[in-house]
């Protein structure tokens, strides 16, 4: 044959110089791949974007300070479940952990939205390719010698995605409440709107769109229905969520950027970098 196929000596076939295992019966091509485009650009940009967010969010989460500038609270610290939280008038101060928690209060609540994003189907693809090269791109074989799927620790924890989805819904409700409280001025008087209100409003809208576009949400709405005609309401919701699901990647990045910018805005107000511009 023109391709020069050879019978593999074992179940995994010969191992080319590029370090990639070939499947039985495949052509004997020594190159790891034949792509000539800049295939590494997409996973590289993904890894860089996620790395920037991880570094920034880690710094803000562990700082435990400058997360409240009346009437705005950072989405990283809401709801505040420790007793060492700053006093937020009518805000989500629920000291369920009492005074024994010595660390930043953000570390209590961030486990839920973080767990939701880490187990998200899109983010799995993003960091599998960007950080683990599993695989790094389409038609580019991964360098790993074996793959066990998501059946072993720690990847088996990806199956918790649906449960993190329920927790993410509760967090989104709290952030919606925070946005409502943003229609006050710094003296807690209602009927006012500042630039911070708009920042929180855009952020919570993107958070809701990202959360509702989740694959688990789509499956909950209609994934197990056998007769759509008997469930017209759920079918309609399933269709709407399906359209959002088609934009899940864009919504994942938009909401990730917006939550970081919302925290940054509150941080700058809290350290006195500038005053919140008021619209009315």
What attributes characterize this protein structure?
single chain, 280 residues, mainly alpha, two-stranded antiparallel sheet, 2 strands, disordered N terminus
What does this structure look like?
The protein contains 9 helices and 2 strands, in the order H-E-E-H-H-H-H-H-H-H-H. It is mainly alpha-helical. Strands 1-2 form a two-stranded antiparallel sheet. Strand 1 and strand 2 form a beta hairpin. Helix 1 (41-63) crosses helix 4, helix 3 (111-118) crosses helix 5 and helix 6 (195-212) packs antiparallel against helix 9. The longest helix is centred in the N-terminal third of the chain and has 23 residues, at 41-63. The chain is globular.
Summarize the structure.
It contains nine helices and two strands, in the order H-E-E-H-H-H-H-H-H-H-H.
Layout of helices and strands:
Blueprint: H1 41-63, E1 68-69, E2 72-73, H2 106-109, H3 111-118, H4 121-130, H5 161-181, H6 195-212, H7 215-222, H8 232-245, H9 248-270
Antiparallel strand pairs: 1-2
Helix pairs in contact: 1-4, 1-9, 3-5, 5-6, 6-9, 7-8
């Amino acid at each position: 044959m023109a391709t020069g196929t050879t019978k593999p000596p074992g179940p995994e076939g010969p191992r080319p110089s590029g370090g990639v295992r070939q499947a039985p019966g495949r052509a004997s091509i020594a190159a790891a791949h034949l792509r000539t485009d800049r295939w590494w650009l997409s996973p590289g940009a993904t890894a860089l974007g996620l790395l920037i967010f991880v570094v920034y969010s880690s710094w803000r989460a562990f700082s435990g300070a400058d997360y409240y500038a009346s009437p705005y609270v950072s989405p990283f610290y809401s709801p505040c479940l420790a007793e060492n939280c700053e006093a937020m008038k009518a805000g989500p101060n629920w000291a369920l952990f009492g005074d024994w928690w010595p660390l930043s209060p953000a570390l209590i609540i961030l486990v839920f939205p973080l767990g939701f994003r880490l187990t998200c189907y899109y983010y799995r693809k993003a960091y599998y390719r960007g950080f683990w090269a599993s695989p790094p791109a389409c038609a580019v074989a991964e360098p790993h010698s074996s793959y066990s799927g998501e059946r072993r620790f720690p990847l088996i924890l990806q199956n918790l995605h649906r449960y993190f989805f329920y927790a993410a819904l509760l967090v989104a409700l709290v952030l919606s409440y925070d946005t409502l409280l943003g229609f006050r001025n710094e003296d807690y008087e209602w009927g006012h709107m500042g630039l911070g209100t708009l920042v929180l409003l855009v952020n919570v809208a993107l958070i809701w769109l990202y959360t509702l576009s989740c694959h688990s949400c789509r499956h909950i709405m209609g994934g197990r229905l056998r007769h759509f005609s008997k469930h017209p309401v759920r079918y309609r919701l399933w269709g709407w969520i399906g359209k959002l699901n088609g934009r899940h990647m864009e919504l994942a990045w938009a909401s990730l950027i917006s939550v970081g910018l919302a925290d940054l805005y509150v941080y700058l107000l809290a350290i006195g970098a500038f005053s919140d511009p008021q619209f009315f």
